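Contributing new records

If you add data, match the layout below exactly. Sequence lines come first and carry their own label; structure lines follow with theirs. Keep one chain per record. Anything else will be rejected by the validation script.
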Amino acid sequence: VSTTKGIESGSFMLMSQILSEEAPAAKVGVLSGPNLAKEIASNQLTGTVIASALEEVRETIKDILKSDSFRVYTNDDMYGVELGGSLKNIYAIIAGMAAALGMGHNTNSMLVTRSLTEMARFGREMGADPMTFLGLAGVGDLVVTCSTPLSRNYRIGVALGKGKSLQGAIEEVGQVAEGVNTVKLVAEKAAEVGVYMPLATGLYKIIYEQDSISSIISSLMLGEQALDVEFAAGAEKVLVEE
């Protein structure tokens, strides 16, 4: 069972795919969700998602991990659950930058909502079920990561928003922030497959092309208008409350 939230450079493979390639006989699953380690350790009420193509894996891990303070949900869309955990790190950096610039709750709400749209749009193109992004491993993880300094990626964004260089931001946080590498891979893949991701692309330009934050904000706000809700599930699914 993988808890890794990242994408391999070059292959664009997720950890579950790497595990399946290296150990074809292994029964693979992934665990993801709004799971801040410090809060889990202090027995704060928390929900997570175990995803696998195998019901045996889903049910076994659920039975092992569930407790009075840790609720485990299941999903058969392993790729979507794992991809959501990687993508949300990009948007946590953006949310941290917005906070450092003094932007308020309206801005954060808009960022989270449009981030979710980008995640689902990209996920659908890559083969995930867009409905997965409406669950704990999608919007759940996105909301918590975009709203707390307990998130390394959020803290990187705060440092960047205060004018620090990328290296200076990394040194200040003192920990690896996965979103820094993920945004490069995702922006390049989005351009390759033709998926519109203005937030991710904007962050890529700020970090790797040294575009100014103000110019990116202007282009985002004055860009072509689009529908509010623009993605739908690729297949009908019945949602059952556990």
